[in-house]
Every structure is written in C-alpha cells, then in structure tokens.
Amino acid sequence: MQTNELGRTGIKVSDMCLGTMTFGTQTSMDEGCRQIDMALDHGINFLDTAEMYPTNPLSKETQGDTERVIGEWVKRSGRRSEMVIATKVSGSGYKNVRDGAAMGPETIGVALEASLASLNTDYVDLYQLHWPNRGSYMFRQNWTYDPTGQDRAEVLEHMEAVLEALAGHIKAGRIRAVGLSNESAWGSAQWLRLAEDKGLPRMATIQNEYSLLCRMFDSDMAELSHHEDLGLLAFSPLAAGLLSGKYQGGAKPEGSRKTFVDDLGGRFTPNAVEAVARYLEIAERHGLNPIHMALAWCRTRPFMTSAIFGATTEAQLVEVLQGLDLELSAEVMAEITDVYRDFPMPY
Predict the structure, then answer these.
(1) What pLDDT shows up at residue 332?
(2) How is domain 3-240+298-326 classified at the CATH fold level?
(3) What is the pLDDT of residue 21?
(4) CB proximity list for 299: less than 8 A, separation 6 or greater
(5) What is the torsion angle, in degrees rounded to the nearest 10, for the CA atoms of residue 218, residue 219, residue 220 and residue 226?
(6) Using CA atoms, how far apart are residues 262 and 94, in angstroms rounded to an integer?
(7) Can you tell me the distance from the alpha carbon of 28 to that of 186, in angstroms, rounded to the nearest whole number?
(8) Tens digit of pLDDT for each residue in 198-247?
C-alpha cells in the first residue's frame, strides 16, 4: 500500500481511505468495527468521518452516530495509534448540527469536544472545515455559484479567527493537523497566506469531490495543490456508486444510496449514464473490475493524497480490497482520456 504525507505535517497515510458516512444507519456498529479492522489489516491506516454523519438519511436524531461507531472500535480494538482519524466540523446552515450556527472559534470548540468524546480519543489526527461559511460551488452548486455577495474583509477576518482557535487546540494536543473541504482555489490560497503571514496552522489537505465523472480539481486547484503541498483527499471517487455500473439500465439495488437519494445528489443525469457506459466498456474490454479501475485511476493523479471510498457492507469492502494492487496500462489510461474529452462534466 502506497503512503503519502498529509501536506507538510510528517503524518503518513495510505493512498486509500475508508470513508464511514454510512456507519450508524446503513452499516451497523458491529459491521463498522469489523470493516475498520479489515481495512487496517490490509494496510489502510486512514479513516474519514464528520460530526454530521451518518448519511442516507441525514437526521438530527442520528447526527454523530458515525463518530460513535469509530469510538466503539477504538474501545474494542485498542489500535487507536495505528489509525489516522480525520473528522470535520460543519459550516453555516446545516440545521441538524447546532441549528445551523456558523463555524467560528466558539462552535469549533464545542464541536471538537463532542467529536473527541464520540471518537473515544484524546486527539484528532486531521480536523477539517467541512465547507466554508460563505458557501461553496461543490455538490452541483457550480452551475449557479455567485461569489459577488461576499465581503473580502469579513471573510479574511473570519479565517484568521478560525486559524487562531485551531492553533490553541493544536497547542493543547487535541488536533495534530488541519485541513479544508469543499473549498475553492481562492479560499484555499487565503487560508495558506494567512497561516504564513501570521504564523498560524497551515492547512495540510483539501477534501473535494473527484472521480472520472467529476474533475473540477484538474485545473486551478491542481496547480495550487502542486505548489503549496495541499494534497487532495478525494471524496466520491466512485461517483456515489455510479462508476460501479450498478445503476445502469434503471437499476436501483435495495438498500443502495439511490433508494434514499434518487438523483444521487444531482449526479444521476443522462450524460452521466452515457459516460459510465463508456467507462464500463473500457473495463470490460480489458478484463477489469470497474470499481478497481476507477479507484486505480484516482490513485495515479499527481495531486492525490488519498481516495476516500465507502463500503456499506463487508462484501463491498472485500471487493475494493481485491483491487489494491491494480496498475492501469498506458492503453487503458489513453482510453479513459478519450471518454473524458467526450464527457468533461457529465453532471
């Protein structure tokens, strides 16, 4: 298993990360604990969660249950030191957490204390800002994104206050490293500039969506990532399951995400279905499992720190683990590029 550094922190993580957002709803406590053990035994030493999880569905009643599943694993296994655990604090507007309060120094303190208790740990390895208070173009909001209502001075003042609060938690040993999520190139650059100018914590990673079907990271963000050592933690590298092929032909497997969110968060479009069909043809032609192909491709990207995949069931995790050693041929890579040119933004 290849490992990469989280930014400039010295913390090494596997280039595959077990996403846990179904733990506590679709994935039970016991199965979640077994999955973490299985992943660790196969060289995956990186877990990603968030205070707002589990999903499918999201609810105020279950909020935080995913962290509690991981906390139970910490208690049962005694292997906390072997696993790098990343979680996230919610930004403004999400009503199931603190009634939608904006992210700031005070809410970060409250959120971190709750996450540490739920995770049954004294520290979080990577603490991420789930999305900016000012909004984000991720999750298909790019089609209508308009930043002109933002006040630059207010945004920068907020960023500095958040970095100062994070510095206090790092000094106290509650956080080892900090990262971004659902952030833009301009926003990422400002976080990094303020850290350098003020001697404050430096963002180590950025967690944005990235897959064969969603490649917005390939231009400005890729350049920033290269020059600033801000590595990508790619969420939805299988495009919410689309790239597995399980939704082709109108299929809706029982218990799958599509049974809870029919449009897969805006991803299920006619163009996406056609693009997936083309990627499935490549996999079939070369005798590849399409899940393995999609994840192996993500791991070739020069800015990739780790690809975050989810497994609702142990069987799905086993299938992913079987493809850890796959390396794609030059012919497969070229064919993937051809499909990308035909379908650059299928959703």
Answers:
(1) 98
(2) TIM Barrel (3.20.20)
(3) 98
(4) 2, 15, 16, 307
(5) 60
(6) 21
(7) 39
(8) 999 999 999 999 999 999 999 999 999 999 999 999 999 999 999 999 99
Going through 32-74 in order, the beta strands assigned E by DSSP cover 46-48
The label of the residue with tokens 């069931």 reads 313
Give the tens place of pLDDT for each residue, 260-282.
999 999 999 999 999 999 999 99
Amino acid at 114: A
Task: Output the pLDDT for position 255.
Answer: 87
- 216-222, Cβ contacts within 8 angstroms, sequence gap of 24 or more: 216/142, 216/345, 217/303, 220/185, 221/184, 221/185, 221/188, 221/303, 222/302, 222/303
DSSP states of 266-311:
TT--HHHHHHHHHHHHHHHHTT--HHHHHHHHHHHSTTEEEEEEE-
The residue among 347, 238, 236 whose CA lies nearest residue 293 is 238
Structural domain spans, the chain: 3-240+298-326
Residue 7 neighbours by CB under 8 Å, 6+ apart: 177, 179, 202, 203, 204, 205, 229, 230, 231
Q: pLDDT averaged over the chain?
A: 97
Q: What is the pLDDT of residues 284-302, one digit of tens each?
A: 999 999 999 999 999 999 9
Q: What tokens does 317 get?
A: 């995790």
Angle at which helices 65-77 and 105-119 cross, to 10°: 40
d(CA 129, CA 159): 11
Task: Give the residue numbers marked as catalytic.
Answer: 53
Strands (E), 43-199: 46-48, 84-89, 124-129, 175-181
Amino acid identity for residue 191 in this structure: W
Question: In this structure, is the dihedral angle defined by the CA atoms of residues 135, 138, 140 and 142, taken in order, positive or negative?
Answer: positive
